[in-house]
Amino acid sequence: MKIICVGRNYIDHINELSNQKPTEPVLFMKPDTSVLLKTFPFVIPDFSNDVHHEVEVLVKICKVGKSISPKFAHKYYNQIGLGVDFTARDVQSKLKEKGLPWEIAKGFDGATVIGDFVDKDQFENLQNISFQLMKNDEVVQNGNTQDMLWQIDELISYISQFFTLKIGDIIFTGTPSGVSKVNSGDVLEGFLEDKKMFGFKVL
After folding, report:
1. 56-65 confidence digits (pLDDT tens)
2. CB 203 within 8 A of CB 43
3. Which of 175, 167, 156, 162 minimizes the C-alpha distance to 106?
4. DSSP string covering 69-98
5. Do 173 and 7 form a contact (C-beta atoms < 8 A)?
6. Alpha helices in 6-140 (DSSP H)
7. In 3D, which of 130, 148, 142, 141 has the Cα closest to residue 182?
8. In 3-state terms, what secondary structure has residue 64?
9. What is the distance between the alpha carbons of residues 163 and 146, in angstroms, rounded to a whole number?
10. In sequence order, what are the residues at sequence separation of 6 or more whose Cβ sits closer than 8 angstroms to the Cβ of residue 46?
11. The predicted structure's pLDDT at residue 14
12. Distance between CA atoms of residues 136 and 121, nearest Å
């Protein structure tokens, strides 16, 4: 399973981190060892003092594809999910300042939360799906797929130019604004429309 992530796909999040708006999707990968096992808590790593939550809509690939045309991209996935891309922001910032890759800030053990998936046919319009992250019963991130700079089918087409997509691969499609630090004792819950997709505690 490949975990392919899209950065800077929501303009409000780009602005809150003072990043430049990209002209093409920003891609990075996470190893499968970064996946947080279900029912497990997220443990803040000892090498970071500033781990941020980033809630994202997920797409699960159901068909092998390479160089996929945007008009056929919808045939390559049938499930939509929700997850969290944890980011050691302090580590990432230091690496970015030096122009170095920042996988260790994104791909450390437990940094990838993959919640439940639902059939994409449950949604009337994939370009208008609302989602939320709640921290300690308070909404901290509130997004909608209509605000993506690149929609799901466009992302699949772009990604498949470089990486052959295989059954079971998961795409993280980017996070909206509202990212913030997590602390020990926090409880995070994610909702896709009104459906709870995950819930766990931070240690």
Report:
1. 999 999 999 9
2. yes
3. 175
4. -GGGGGGGEEEEEEEEE-EEHHHHHHHHHT
5. no
6. 11-16, 89-97, 103-106
7. 141
8. coil
9. 25
10. none
11. 66
12. 31
Please give the structure tokens belonging to residue 39: 């029912």
Instruction: Name every residue whose Cβ is closer than 8 Å to that of residue 18 and which is 6 or more positions away in sequence.
Output: none
> How far apart, in whole angstroms, are the C-alpha atoms of residue 20 and residue 179?
17
How does DSSP classify residue 8?
Answer: S
- Pull the structure tokens for residue 174: 């980017």
Angle, vertex CA 107, rays to CA 2 and CA 65, nearest 5:
15
Beta strand pairing status for 138-144 and 170-172? Answer: unpaired
Which amino acid is present at 77?
Answer: Y
Local mean pLDDT, 10-residue blocks, the chain (203 residues): 93 74 92 96 98 98 98 98 98 96 96 98 96 98 95 97 98 95 98 97 98
Give me 191's structure tokens. Answer: 């909702």
